[in-house]
Amino acid sequence: MAIGFQSYLLYVVDSLELYQGSLEVERIFTKWLEEEADSNYGAYIPFIGTIRAEDEIEALSFDIYEPVLQKWFSDWEEKAAQRGAKVKMAHAIGDVPVHTSSYISAVFSPKRRVALELIDEFVEDFKANAPIWKYDVKEGKRIYAADRSTPMNGSGLLSK
């Protein structure tokens, strides 16, 4: 966690957590490891998304449509369970300054190959299909990042 920033847990259902502001990576990972300590998984593969300093942005800002995200994530929980694995995810809502984290996911699995494959599939599908809208923050203003956003089927103006 960057000094001066604190996140607040807003929403948690099963293994999906949404926070206001930057994610406290170490705290979230430690919690997940403690939750799964007795689960006998042989592989734990995390992924951390960090805001890069580019195009003179101060931060990125995120809006999330929680009901659709929960459905998307529940489908992934089922896919992982069919392979004997578990997925976990945390994402930020609102402004996330550069050099801090907005997204964390992890796969726990009895076997490394399953975990490696699932984390890749999960992160790629997240980028393509999760109902999360991204904005650049420049000079304190939110600007929709249309050039770096993925259109979603059925999402009205934002659809493909």
TrEMBL record:
Enzyme class, UniProt record, top EC level: transferase
Enzyme Commission designation: 2.8.1.12
Entry-linked CDD domains: MoaE (cd00756)
Pathway noted in the entry: Cofactor biosynthesis; molybdopterin biosynthesis
Keywords: Molybdenum cofactor biosynthesis
Catalytic reaction equation(s): 2 [molybdopterin-synthase sulfur-carrier protein]-C-terminal-Gly-aminoethanethioate + cyclic pyranopterin phosphate + H2O = molybdopterin + 2 [molybdopterin-synthase sulfur-carrier protein]-C-terminal Gly-Gly + 2 H(+)
Pfam families reported for this sequence: MoaE
SUPFAM superfamilies: Molybdopterin synthase subunit MoaE
InterPro entries listed in its UniProt record: MoaE_sf, Mopterin_biosynth_MoaE
Coiled coil start-end: none
Gene Ontology MF, one: molybdopterin synthase activity
Protein origin, superkingdom: Bacteria
GO biological process: Mo-molybdopterin cofactor biosynthetic process
Entry's family note: Belongs to the MoaE family.
Record text on subunit structure and interactions: Heterotetramer of 2 MoaD subunits and 2 MoaE subunits. Also stable as homodimer. The enzyme changes between these two forms during catalysis.
Full protein name: Molybdopterin synthase catalytic subunit
Organism of origin: uncultured Sulfurovum sp
